[in-house]
Write a sequence for this structure.
């Protein structure tokens, strides 16, 4: 059985032993008790509806692809926020218009 070890490689831009100690202490503190704020765990998925500007179905199927991504491939640790273009359209003298994005939970 072959085991791969993840090893971060880099350098600390310390100009003194005291600065190096400060960097190392901060890294140890973070690794011991990381704080994951919402900004680190929030994933926003944006998709358009499945209708082309002509009113025909969109073969790209953006809406279903976005849902598959959110439900199948995103780890449960993430909070997923979806923004989906409105399915309904307004037909005006200026052409087909879509409402603003609607947040989905």
């Amino acid at each position: 059985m072959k085991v791969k070890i993840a090893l971060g490689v880099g350098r600390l831009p310390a100009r003194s032993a005291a600065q190096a100690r400060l960097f190392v202490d901060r890294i140890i503190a973070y690794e011991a008790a990381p704080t994951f704020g919402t900004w680190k765990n929030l994933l926003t998925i944006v998709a358009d509806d499945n209708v082309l500007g002509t009113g025909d179905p969109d073969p790209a199927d953006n809406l279903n692809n976005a849902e598959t991504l959110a439900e199948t491939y995103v780890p449960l640790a993430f909070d997923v926020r979806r923004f989906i273009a409105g399915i309904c359209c307004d037909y005006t003298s200026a052409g087909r218009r879509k409402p603003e994005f609607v947040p989905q939970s």
